[in-house]
Q: What sequence folds into this?
């Protein structure tokens, strides 16, 4: 062999380094394949341990959440030795992307946490209908006061949190309750006011805020009374919390479609007929109160998100912060001071500014949350449901929530004394007009409301433009929507359901939308009846409110009262029996 | 042009088959959505079931919509500001190019490449914290250097009511400060991609030209003005086009800094953000209207790019 040929051959041969690299790649690939196959085999089928594997995935990263779930899982496995429960936590920020790939790839875990309540696109494509299951009893409630009661009725909200209105089916299994509360720094309260007692009412609260401001000024330190976020001030925060208390009774005369809920049409009807005055004293008082409250937020709160508000509170730069039930874990772990919790204070009747306009404590929707859906691709749906029944039995939900300092979702479940503050206020004023139901008006609110809160525009300036927009863009938009909807099939939204509720209340109103798929005997109508049968207790509650109004317990002007009678609807056995049939059994 | 006969096409059909997947992907993911946007812009469509043909109504509405008009007003201010913000990048590129040590030149180039791997959102969030009225660096700097006193004094003269003694200005919460904050963002405005593009242009200038300029007695500034700038005008034009397109269509910066409302009073509601809001956020989405806003934006960008190509002439 010539020298040139030898050189050529040596060039062609693969060097040892490349060989090692190649071998490593092949080994890594083989290990990965083995791992994937192992997981796929374990996913529902009898796996290597000859056990049925149920996977549950959530997105809460707190260590004790996993611990609480694992404890439930081990207890369940003790009862069911042939089953293995795998609990997995995926970080919140990556959860949606992770879930999407699992859903599309058909490898979704049996049970997975739902990011949003009522996401009908996700539910209809990837989730199993739970309606047939929720009518069954929960066997793990044997020996308790909830024995023999349908699963859904063991929840104190009738499992409404897991009900998707747009699909008229149950799709989520809730485990706890979420309410907004004020967390406060007890140490700072003691330092500033000499007491760590929470404020008794709104006026008391404002006085504490003023004392904190004065303390910060005297000491020359930056401490704000309340750490707030943009969302806290907007319609999902203090705005909505106080709105019903000031304007709740206004719904009755303007509830033009007798839906019992807030509608934009009612506002427009009132404005166009001249019967609704958005600058009247109650609304003016409400807005004045919002500004008084916002004066205690940190500067620039309109750009702050929840993390920043929490940061201010934990770093003792703010004495109070609004938070949800779940936040108690965070503050107990991170705050280096004693944390207290109180309900968002309300003015009492003696309040010099707002007392005469205040109708009462706002009702907090007692909706259960922390929902889990059942995957359509699960191979062991019955076992997965059985595990969730185990988790939401009276004893286990009580234990689970006690371990996490959460408020339980199951009726009669006992909770720690200090957590009782998170119980939803189930008696109070609920309904109010929907002032923000039109896109351009919502945008105006989102932009200008903060200018009002900051004192850069007056209430009259704000409201004059608000009314003008309602009468121009609001009217135009609602007409376009009405025309567009009337030409198409009815949209299965709660708004339209509200419009059809009148049929159930008053049979003679059956022809209210001729030509639409809402007539007697249609599936849609049946759906409406099911909704009503389930949530009759909402009407019971509303009847209570109306009774209070009629009795004069609420002090809003009697000129706005209309003789409206609402009756609680008893569960309709025929409807319930249809509903309890397994899906697919028409 | 040479015609391709059917016979030749049949002979080379495999080659055309190889092109098909790319073509299919291009049509599916680029042209089909664009066509969809044009189609839906003629509908009152909420992105779901409600869809009604309304002709040019969305376009008519957009042309008289105060939010749209105000949005383009803001964008024109930002485009003008960004025009000036291009200058530091050119200056830095020239400075790096003139470094005598090639090692340091390389080092600085690498320094400009590294930030490219940092997601833009991180940079925006860092700036959001800069602007924080309570603990942000900007206010701390202004207070430390007593520039805040100067601002308070000027405010007192003109009665703006923005810089008030004893309070920290909320840069992103006052409508009057929102546009200045958006302009100040990114200070000292040395864009990494911009610098690298200019550097590529500068590296193409022959040493002979520099030598000739030196013989003619040109100083550093004269060299820049008469040699370097004319010879990197192609790169300047590329950056100009990119800047105009980016400024008009971008809304991520405003969304992160100010939220989906464009800040209090909507002072920063740029057209892109308004379109995004109409498409995905509003209580009742107006996807059809958002499509019309997108098409209008496309036409404006196309027009400006055309004007740019036609009137920003490069003579070498």
A:
């Amino acid at each position: 062999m010539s020298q040139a040929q030898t050189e050529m051959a040596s060039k062609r041969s693969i060097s040892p380094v490349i060989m090692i690299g190649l071998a490593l790649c092949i080994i890594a690939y083989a290990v990965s394949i083995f791992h994937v196959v192992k997981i796929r085999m374990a996913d529902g089928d009898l796996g290597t341990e000859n056990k049925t594997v149920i996977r549950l995935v959530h997105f809460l990263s707190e260590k004790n959440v996993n611990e609480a779930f694992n404890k439930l899982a081990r207890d369940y496995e003790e009862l069911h030795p042939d089953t293995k429960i795998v609990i997995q936590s995926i970080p919140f920020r990556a959860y949606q992307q992770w879930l999407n790939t699992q859903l599309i790839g058909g490898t979704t875990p049996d049970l997975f946490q739902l990011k949003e309540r009522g996401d009908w696109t996700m539910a209809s494509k990837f989730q199993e209908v739970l309606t047939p299951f929720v009518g069954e009893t929960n066997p793990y409630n044997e020996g308790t006061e909830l024995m023999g009661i349908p699963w859904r009725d063991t929840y104190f909200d009738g499992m409404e949190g897991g009900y998707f209105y747009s699909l008229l089916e149950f799709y989520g299994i809730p485990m706890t309750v979420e309410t907004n509360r004020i967390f406060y720094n007890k140490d700072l309260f003691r330092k500033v006011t000499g007491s760590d007692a929470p404020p008794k009412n709104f006026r008391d609260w404002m006085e504490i805020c003023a004392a904190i401001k004065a303390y910060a000024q005297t000491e020359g330190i930056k401490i704000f009374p309340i750490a707030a976020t943009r969302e806290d001030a907007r319609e999902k925060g203090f705005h909505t919390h106080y709105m019903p208390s000031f304007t709740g009774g206004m719904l009755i005369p303007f509830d033009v479609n007798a839906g019992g809920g807030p509608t934009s049409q009612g506002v427009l009807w009132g404005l166009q007929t001249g019967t609704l005055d958005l600058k009247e004293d109650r609304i003016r008082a409400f807005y004045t109160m919002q500004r008084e409250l916002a004066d205690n937020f940190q500067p620039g709160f309109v750009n702050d998100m929840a993390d920043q508000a929490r940061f201010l509170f934990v770093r003792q730069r703010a004495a109070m912060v609004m938070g949800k039930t779940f936040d108690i874990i965070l503050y107990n772990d991170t705050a280096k001071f004693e944390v207290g919790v109180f309900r968002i204070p309300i003015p009492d009747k003696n309040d010099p500014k707002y007392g005469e306009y205040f109708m009462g404590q706002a009702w907090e929707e007692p909706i259960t949350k922390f929902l889990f859906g059942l995957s359509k691709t699960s191979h062991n749906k019955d076992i997965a449901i059985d595990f969730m029944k185990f988790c939401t039995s009276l004893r286990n939900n009580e234990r689970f929530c006690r371990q996490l300092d959460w408020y339980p979702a199951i009726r009669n479940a006992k909770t720690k004394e200090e957590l009782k503050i998170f119980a939803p206020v189930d008696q109070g004023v609920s309904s109010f007009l929907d002032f923000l139901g039109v896109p351009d008006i919502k945008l105006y609110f989102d932009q200008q409301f903060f200018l009002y809160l900051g004192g850069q525009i007056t209430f009259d300036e704000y409201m004059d433009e608000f009314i003008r927009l309602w009468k121009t863009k609001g009217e135009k938009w609602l007409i376009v929507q009405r025309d567009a909807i009337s030409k198409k099939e009815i949209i299965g939204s709660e708004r339209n359901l509200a419009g059809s509720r009148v049929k159930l209340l008053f049979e003679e109103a059956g022809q209210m939308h001729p030509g639409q798929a809402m007539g007697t005997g249609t599936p849609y109508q049946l759906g409406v009846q099911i909704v009503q049968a389930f949530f009759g207790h909402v009407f019971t509650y509303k009847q209570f409110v109306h009774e209070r109004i009629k009795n004069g317990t609420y002090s809003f002007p009697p000129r706005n009262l209309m003789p409206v009678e609402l009756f609680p609807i008893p569960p309709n056995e025929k409807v319930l029996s249809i509903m309890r049939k397994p899906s697919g059994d028409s | 042009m040479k015609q391709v006969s059917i016979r030749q096409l049949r002979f080379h059909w495999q080659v055309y088959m190889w092109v098909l997947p790319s073509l299919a992907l291009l049509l599916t993911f680029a042209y089909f959505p664009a066509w969809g946007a044009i189609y839906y812009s003629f509908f009152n469509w909420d992105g779901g079931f409600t869809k009604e043909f309304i002709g040019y109504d969305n376009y008519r509405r957009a042309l008289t919509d105060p939010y749209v008009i105000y949005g383009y007003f803001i964008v024109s201010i930002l485009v003008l500001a960004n025009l000036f913000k291009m200058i530091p990048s050119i200056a830095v590129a020239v400075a790096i190019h003139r470094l005598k040590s090639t090692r340091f030149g390389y080092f600085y180039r690498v320094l400009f490449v590294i930030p490219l791997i940092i997601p833009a959102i991180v940079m925006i969030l860092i700036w959001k914290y800069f602007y924080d009225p309570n603990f942000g660096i900007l206010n701390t700097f202004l207070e430390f250097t007593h520039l805040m006193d100067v601002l308070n004094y000027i405010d007192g003269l003109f009665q703006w009511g923005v810089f008030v003694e004893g309070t920290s200005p909320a840069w992103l919460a006052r409508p009057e400060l929102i546009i200045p904050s958006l302009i100040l963002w990114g200070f000292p405005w040395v864009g990494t991609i911009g610098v690298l593009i200019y550097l590529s242009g500068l590296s193409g200038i022959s040493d002979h030209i520099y030598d000739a300029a030196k013989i003619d007695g040109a100083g550093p500034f004269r060299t820049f003005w008469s040699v370097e700038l004319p010879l990197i005008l192609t790169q300047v034009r590329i950056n100009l086009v990119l800047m105009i397109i980016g400024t008009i269509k971008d809304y991520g910066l405003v969304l992160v800094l100010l939220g989906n409302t464009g800040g209090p009073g909507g002072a920063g509601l740029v057209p892109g953000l308004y379109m995004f809001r109409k498409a995905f956020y509003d209580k009742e989405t107006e996807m059809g209207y958002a499509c019309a806003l997108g098409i209008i934006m496309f036409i404006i960008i196309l027009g400006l790019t055309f004007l740019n190509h036609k009137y920003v002439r490069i003579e070498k």
